[in-house]
Design goal:
Layout (H helix, E strand, L loop, with lengths): L5 E5 L2 E7 L5 E6 L8 E4 L7 E5 L2 E7 L6 E6 L8 E4 L7 E5 L2 E7 L5 E6 L8 E2 L9 E5 L2 E7 L5 E6 L8 E2 L16 E5 L2 E7 L4 E7 L8 E6 L5 E5 L2 E7 L5 E6 L8 E2 L9 E5 L2 E7 L5 E6 L8 E2 L9 E5 L2 E7 L5 E6 L8 E4 L7 E5 L2 E7 L6 E6 L8 E4 L7 E5 L2 E7 L5 E6 L8 E2 L9 E5 L2 E5 L1 E2 L6 E8 L2 E8 L5
Antiparallel strand pairs: 1-2, 2-3, 3-4, 5-6, 6-7, 7-8, 9-10, 10-11, 11-12, 13-14, 14-15, 15-16, 17-18, 18-19, 19-20, 21-22, 22-23, 23-24, 25-26, 26-27, 27-28, 29-30, 30-31, 31-32, 33-34, 34-35, 35-36, 37-38, 38-39, 39-40, 41-42, 43-44, 44-45
Length: 498
C-alpha cells in the first residue's frame, strides 16, 4: 500500500480501505472470524480515502489524481455502485460524516477554503464554501444535534465552525497551544479523569505549567498555572480534590490543589530532587515519590491532615519512580543504576526493600494493574524491543518480548477487558499493541509525528492518547478519538501529522 488505512465498522463486519501502490482503492474485510484479503475497487486516488457507514450503505470518498474531483463509491449491502463524480476540483482529501438523515462531505479547496457537499437522501446539494484559510484536511464530527468542523489555520490555531441544524456559526478560534518546548523532547503530558472532566497537564517551552480541560463537550484551551518546572508534572485525583505535583528549578517538589472551587496555589513540599515526581492515591493517603540528588528514592505522604516529610527508601537509581496500587499493597518500580528494573513493596506495615526483576531498561518503566495481575513494561537498551514482565499474584513470569524496535518509553493502560500498550517508534509514529485476553494483536501504526513519550487514559467508554508532536512554533497534542463508527487520529491543539 501507498497510503494510510481507514477502518470502519459496517454491520457485523470490519472494513479496512487503503490506497494501493498502483493508485487504486483496496479493501479488506473481517467477517468476525477471518480476513477476506485485499481486493481492488478501482479508482485513481490522489490521497487517502474516507469511509463512512450511512444507514444501510457504506460510502467511500476519494480525490482523484487525474481530475482532482471528489468521487464516491457505494456498497448497498449486496454490490458496489461503481465510481460517481461529485465534482471539484479540490486540493485535499475528502472526509465524509453521517449527520442525522444526511451525508456530508468536507474537503479543502484550491483556494484554501473549506467546502461541503450534502446528500439529503435523494440528491446532492453541490459543493458550497464555508470560507476560511486552512492548511490541513478537515475533521468533521457529529456532536448531539450539531455538526462541527475543525481545521487548522495558517497560524497554527485550531478553528471550529458549527451547524446547529439551521445555520453555520462562522469560524471560531479555539485558542493557540502553549509555547513550544525546545531541547526537552522527553517531556510528556499528564492526563487524569477528574469527576466528569478530563485534564491534560504539560510543561511548556517557557517552563511554565499548562492545563487544558475537557468538560464532556468542549476543551477549555490551555491556561497557565504559574508554576515552573524543567520536568514532567504528575497529577492525581485524591478524594474530591485534584492534586498536581511538579519539581521546581530549586529541586523542591511543589503541589497545587483544586478543591472543586479554586486552586490553592503552589505549596513547597521541600526535597532535593533531580527527576519527575510520581503521585498515587493509596487508601486514605496520598503518596508522592521522587528521585533525590543522591539517587535514592524518596516518599512524602499526606495522611489526610499532615505531610510526613520526605522518607528515604534508599536505592541507587537512574530513573523516575512509578508507583501503583495492587490489591492491598503499594508497589514502586524504577530503573536502577545498573539498568535493571527494581521494585519496592509496601504491604501495609513495612517496605520490602529494593529487589531486582532484571531487564535492561532504556528509560522509565510503566506499571499497570490488569485484572488480577500486575504488568510492567519497558523498552530495552539492548534491542529497543518492548518487553513485559507479569506478576500473577504468586510469582513473576520472567521477561517476554513484544517486539520492536522503538524510540520511546512504552505506556500500558487497561481498557475494559483488553490491555493496550502504546510506544513511539523511530519514525515518530505512535504504535499500539493489544492483549485481548488470549493473544497480542501485534503493534499497529496509529500515525503521528511525535517527539516525546505519551500519556494514555481511559475516559468513560473511550481511550485517549496524548503526545507532543514535532514543530518549531507550537506544542501539539493529539489523541485518537471515535468519530461515528470510524476511528481517526485528530489534533487537540495544533496539527503534528504528516
Amino acid at each position: 500500500m501507498a497510503g494510510n488505512p481507514v477502518a470502519v465498522v459496517y454491520g457485523s463486519e470490519l472494513d479496512v480501505f487503503a490506497k494501493g501502490s498502483d493508485g487504486q482503492l483496496y479493501k479488506n474485510t473481517w467477517n468476525g472470524s477471518s480476513w477476506g484479503g485485499f481486493s481492488s475497487l478501482g479508482g485513481t486516488l490522489g490521497g487517502d480515502p474516507s469511509a463512512v457507514a450511512y444507514g444501510s450503505e457504506l460510502d467511500v470518498f476519494m480525490r482523484s489524481s487525474v481530475d482532482n474531483y471528489v468521487w464516491k463509491i457505494t456498497w448497498n449491502g449486496s454490490s458496489w455502485s461503481g465510481w460517481n463524480a461529485l465534482g471539484g476540483t479540490y486540493a485535499g482529501n475528502p472526509i465524509g460524516v453521517a449527520y442525522g438523515s444526511e451525508l456530508d462531505v468536507f474537503v479543502k479547496g484550491n483556494d484554501g477554503a473549506l467546502w461541503k457537499d450534502t446528500w439529503n437522501g435523494s440528491s446532492w446539494g453541490g459543493f458550497s464554501s464555508l470560507g476560511g484559510v486552512i492548511v490541513t484536511d478537515p475533521t468533521p464530527l457529529k456532536f448531539n444535534s450539531e455538526l462541527d468542523g475543525f481545521v487548522r489555520g495558517t497560524t497554527g490555531d485550531i478553528w471550529k465552525q458549527t451547524w446547529n441544524g439551521s445555520s453555520w456559526s462562522g469560524w471560531n478560534d479555539l485558542t493557540t497551544p502553549p509555547p513550544t518546548t525546545t531541547g526537552t523532547d522527553n517531556l510528556r503530558p499528564a492526563a487524569v479523569q477528574y469527576v466528569g472532566e478530563m485534564d491534560v497537564i504539560q510543561a511548556g517551552g517557557d517552563s511554565q505549567v499548562y492545563k487544558d480541560t475537557w468538560n464532556g463537550s468542549s476543551w477549555g484551551g490551555f491556561s497557565g498555572m504559574n508554576g515552573s518546572t524543567p520536568n514532567n508534572p504528575a497529577v492525581v485525583q485524591y478524594d474530591a480534590e485534584l492534586d498536581m505535583f511538579i519539581r521546581g528549578g530549586d529541586g523542591h517538589i511543589y503541589k497545587n490543589t483544586w478543591d472543586t472551587q479554586m486552586w490553592s496555589g503552589w505549596n513547597d513540599l521541600g526535597g532535593s530532587m533531580v527527576g519527575s515526581p510520581n503521585a498515587v492515591a493509596f487508601g486514605n493517603e496520598l503518596d508522592v515519590f521522587a528521585r533525590g540528588g543522591d539517587n535514592h528514592i524518596y516518599k512524602d505522604t499526606w495522611n489526610g491532615s499532615a505531610w510526613s516529610g520526605w522518607n528515604d527508601l534508599g536505592g541507587n537509581m537512574a530513573g523516575n519512580p512509578v508507583a501503583v496500587q495492587y490489591g492491598n499493597e503499594l508497589d514502586v518500580f524504577v530503573k536502577g543504576g545498573d539498568g535493571q528494573l527494581y521494585k519496592d513493596t509496601w504491604n501495609g506495615t513495612s517496605w520490602s526493600g529494593w529487589n531486582t526483576l532484571g531487564g535492561t531498561l532504556a528509560g522509565d518503566p510503566s506499571a499497570v494493574v490488569f485484572g488480577s495481575e500486575l504488568d510492567v513494561y519497558m523498552r530495552s537498551s539492548v534491542d529497543a524491543y518492548v518487553w513485559k514482565i507479569t506478576w500473577n499474584g504468586s510469582s513473576w513470569s520472567g521477561w517476554n518480548a513484544l517486539g520492536g524496535t522503538y524510540a520511546g518509553n512504552p505506556i500500558g493502560v487497561a481498557y475494559g477487558s483488553e490491555m493496550d500498550v502504546f510506544v513511539r517508534g523511530n519514525d515518530g509514529h505512535i504504535y499500539k499493541d493489544s492483549w485481548n485476553g488470549s493473544s497480542w494483536s501485534g503493534f499497529n501504526d496509529l500515525g503521528g509525528n511525535m517527539i516525546g513519550d505519551m500519556a494514555a487514559i481511559q475516559y468513560n467508554s473511550e481511550m485517549d492518547v496524548f503526545a507532543r508532536a514535532s514543530g518549531d512554533h507550537k506544542e501539539d497534542y493529539a489523541k485518537p478519538r471515535h468519530l461515528a463508527t470510524e476511528v481517526q487520529v485528530s489534533d487537540l491543539q495544533g496539527r503534528g501529522f504528516a
